[in-house]
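JOB MANIFEST
job_type = single_chain_structure
chain_count = 1
residues = 194
[input]
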Amino acid sequence: MKTQKKYEEYQKLYIKQTNDLETLDNLYKANQEEIAKCDAGYNEALKKADENKAETFFNKKIELKEEQKKLSNRIKIKKDMANVVTKEKKFETLINAKNLRELYSDDVKTLHDKLKVAVDQYNKVVDEIHALNDKYGEEEHKYRALYDSLSDDERKELKRNPQANGLNFNLYSIASYKPFNYLNDGKFNTMEEK
């Protein structure tokens, strides 16, 4: 890919933003679990009338709730920032792709040039086949004229000759017969650049 670097930059940023958010979410969840443990410890300490332990759990819970608020704010800010940053990078990446056709134009030109050489060589061979057909037609026409100059008796005599077996000059039009035939004129055209 000719634009791989830009695309990878976007992917890297997107993955980093996603991982950062996931880390903050995991911290938030872990904090919630700690708060739940503090609540349970606090209630247990109250049941046992252990004031010192209850106060420790209560203070720890207040600390965790304060940290939870900070985490919640960080998550919100990170989400807002991630959306803006990744959107900008996504736009930049897509705008970079508008030049994709230009980036491949040299490759297309190289292939076009290779194809042109191959087509020219092929067409040259087709021209040689046409020339061979023309030579064949000229030569056969001479023999047809010679055959046409025979009288009916001479033609019958020629047909009886075992060496003449396979001679056939009874074609309606020799000019239409091409022993080395190709479809139509057999030529190709190179593709047009668009």
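[summary]
The CA atoms of residues 141 and 174 lie 7 Å apart.
Residues 105-176 form one domain.
exit_status = 0
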